[in-house]
Design goal:
By secondary structure, the protein is of the alpha/beta class. It has helices spanning 2-6, 10-15, 43-50, 64-77, 88-99, 114-123, 168-177, 228-240, 247-279, 298-304, 321-330, 374-390; strands at residues 81-85, 105-109, 130-134, 150-156, 182-185, 203-207, 221-225, 284-288, 311-316, 335-336, 346-349, 364-368. It is 37% helix and 15% strand. The structure holds pyridoxal-5'-phosphate.
Amino acid sequence: MAEERAKLGAATRLIHPDAHASRDFNSLAVPIYRASTVLFDGLADAHDKASLKGDYTYGLHGTPTSRELALRIAELEQADYCLLVPSGLAAIALVDLALCRAGSHLLIPHSAYGPNVRLAREFMSRFGVETEFYDPLIGSGIGSMIRENTALIWTESPGSVTMELQDVPAIAAAARSRGVPVALDNTYSGGVLNNAFELGANISVQALTKYQAGHSDCLMGSVATRDEALADKLEATHQTFGQGVSPDDCALVLRGLSTMRLRMSAIESSALKVAQWLKSRPEVERVLHPAFPDCPGHEIWKRDFKGSAGVFSVIFRDWDWSRLERFVDALTIFQVGYSWGGVASLAMAYPALTRPSPEAGQRLVRLNIGLEDPEDLIADLAVAIETASAA
Ligand SMILES: *Cc1c(COP(=O)(O)O)cnc(C)c1O
């Protein structure tokens, strides 16, 4: 054998080594399997596996690392199927592409995550999908907007930036009676503060980028369902569009999952302290935090959620955009950046925001609370309010 191998060139021996460590190894951490190519036991095996569901066939369609994460997200959400995609936005796109066709009608709340709105307006429209936007507080009134060709209803609760809570059970009941699937962008809950399927959603979408990954260093999304027919459509579209995820990113999310509940609890309590302090300030008109009565749909939050997360918005009284800008730029612990769910506190304002009104949108700052000491965050806000007010 050694003689046979000695006849091979160095290049061949480097690519086809004979030396292998024992694979009898059982670590607590999930191994990172990097793969495009998956090997088969001959051609017949390759053909057999290609026709069966669930076998490993190609890195794009799953590795043990990505499947472990998909199964854990399904378990977290009490779903039967879960697909992973490269971002939360890719998860939204996967649902649109799997369920809509030319001539479809799509319903999206005004409060939806901005890129979800843009995808519908600027992309799905090019393929003959008509989108209608609805009041996030519509509840069972959604029934009167459902048409023969309604293919999908998006919900997101609380909404992005303006935090409107939606009556997902009422919307889902109206949709169910007309046979229309409801997708819930459940990123805020993380799958921990509520259960999308108990609320009546047929599909739950998460930006795992936020609390699951938890450290602002990786992007990923998930699409979960309990419905086999929907799962088939989603999986076919997932494969067609080549939506693979990196096993290294999966490992980061897997690591994040084990501390997610603790991070969320600490963040929840800090965010409540900071929000409470802001509420007490004369400069503040409204605190849009689901646990506060100022938040549209607060009663729904009390009914449907087990707690709150670390992202909320503040509307300042009588300020204008330039004062808002001075405030945000005066913050030193809060940093300016998009996204949320990590360990660092962030602030963002949106000059084009037209909710709750075009005027009030100019006085709104969204905060993401991280894991810093809440007293330091409050002191940072106090100095920035003073700086903004003094000028
Ligand atoms: C962040 C976010 C997304 C998108 O997630 P990415 O991974 O950043 O693409 C989708 N929906 C909501 C509600 C979000 O907050």
